[in-house]
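Homework-ish question, so no full write-ups if that breaks the rules, but can someone show me the predicted structure for this set?
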Amino acid sequence: MSSAHKMVILTEGFSEPIAAKTAASVVRYRRSDVVALLDSTQAGKTAGGLIGAGDDLPVCGSLDQAPQADTLLLGIAPPGGKIPLRWRQIILDAIARGMDIVSGLHDFLSRDEQFVAAARQAGVRLVDVRQNNEREVAVGQPLGDDCLRIHTVGHDCSVGKMVVSIEVANGLRQAGADAQFVATGQTGIMIAGEGCPIDCVVSDFVCGAAERLILANQSHDILLIEGQGSLAHPRYSPVTLGLLHGCQPHGLILCYEVGRMEFNGLPGRRIPPLAQLRTAYEIAAQLVHPAPVMGIAMNGRQIAVADAEHEKARIRDEFRLPVCDVFRDGPGELVAAVLAFRDQVRAHRRECGDSGGKR
Amino acid sequence: MSSAHKMVILTEGFSEPIAAKTAASVVRYRRSDVVALLDSTQAGKTAGGLIGAGDDLPVCGSLDQAPQADTLLLGIAPPGGKIPLRWRQIILDAIARGMDIVSGLHDFLSRDEQFVAAARQAGVRLVDVRQNNEREVAVGQPLGDDCLRIHTVGHDCSVGKMVVSIEVANGLRQAGADAQFVATGQTGIMIAGEGCPIDCVVSDFVCGAAERLILANQSHDILLIEGQGSLAHPRYSPVTLGLLHGCQPHGLILCYEVGRMEFNGLPGRRIPPLAQLRTAYEIAAQLVHPAPVMGIAMNGRQIAVADAEHEKARIRDEFRLPVCDVFRDGPGELVAAVLAFRDQVRAHRRECGDSGGKR
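A: Not a homework solution, just the prediction itself:
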């Protein structure tokens, strides 16, 4: 993945910000590797106008318009991760042109006989980002305190946990800290070039996979660990809890979108109040490793600037915690909060006389 | 599985109650289908003496001593579910004798080239109880109230959740109710002949698999849904939460073993107090479907009768809930509690004017 340089991102029929969130994030963080979006229903428009990222990146109507491309990346993440039927011919065309195919879907390209045969004939690679062979339970012992682990969690899926993790990690690095974004989902892995597709791990091994991801990264001083789903989501809560318990965070950043009342994909299923979610996350974390919510990331994409300022003030007043909208304001307030939180954790360690060695 | 009639249960080297919990439970509930345990290190003893179930069921030292057997069932459930190396030759011997092999391990027999080749040659079946093809997310909408869903949860794994579920379901049937045990683990499936091996489902689909299991069984009036792991277990909590959210129980029976201080398999990792677990379960359930702990199942296998009575009184006093040890006392108190709880749920439904239809 990390070696791909000329990507076309397929969003055919799904070129809007939430459905095409994989496309939007890859464009946002790997802009120089992307040559176009592909959506024949939106040809001639720009990515910035359609998916809110990529500015004037062109949307082409066929692969003929992007002859220099060497990779087709499937740019959506639908519930259950199936390949849309009408995409099959587009993928086969790309294979025939000698392009590698990168997919984050649950339906693995590499288990599809037609794609496998075509790829073999064309000599191209089928890269299934979600494929994994995680088959070990967690060791389940404390992870040590030398490496500070901050984990983004949300009131729903698709509220910006990955973006917050990346932006805060980048902000910490700009502030001179040795911080690392740890990817746990297909889009994060496409951006970082490594990580663990935790929602595709067999449930007995989810905590183990998360734990191993931390052990592989704890040479850094601070980890920003991408969260998945929501502890309250009727579909994805096991993924969320496995990450929370497996990576044993010291602190949580609670992410939410203003105006999101119902769970993504579940009309009529109301999301519990943010305060209830904060309590639920802290009580769940406490069972394995205590982790307070130490900051709140607000996603204000649906509201105007003035309303966002009002909302931030309201949340600050209710939770007495740092709040920022990393999309609008940058991550500064959360970066400062993580650095202050690290000092608190260190002071607490000294008080408790904890040796805190790395495992 | 349900058609097997002459089983030998392999416990070689692991013939003690916790390691051989699969063997113990199959012997307990399918006694008439079992001809012997196989453990060359314990030959000549009885199952009752070794694993606490099966009374005078013989322990044989080789398959020569059970010539009538047609099935070899692997009788352990180790962490991670690997096949012990020294068992391979025993399994190959059984295959060569024309025996079907039934396994609940994560290491599927049907993906082991040597076993597959041997089974093909001998014309026998390799049955992997944990194998599943669950690939759909949950619908995630309310399940309705006509069918009362009671779910056993625990402070740790291996504390008796399956036995409590079976015993309470049997007790309810004896009391004239239409109750059904719903199996969610390999041993439960071996006993019931059906169910879902939830800990082997890919994490994105765990809630969906649990939900489908309920939809398939809700023609019954009362379901006793087997729990897995523990919400606090550093290895298995995602499995536990996926069941809790996917099956949307009305009420929980909290199961614990007296004297169990550390998590199964994790020396030094202390189990949180029972009251903390009760709160954590109720808060987690509330996020999707409210479910109070309506009874407590005490497992007193490590303590004397007098101490067990004292412990029950202490727990009754602390939690103000029905408590029983189904192993020692039978399930009567919990059966009565479930029937009373059903009346409460019905009364609540009438008060709320809920139509409560089945989905």
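Now go work out the reasoning yourself. Hint: Chain A has two domains: 7-128, 148-352.
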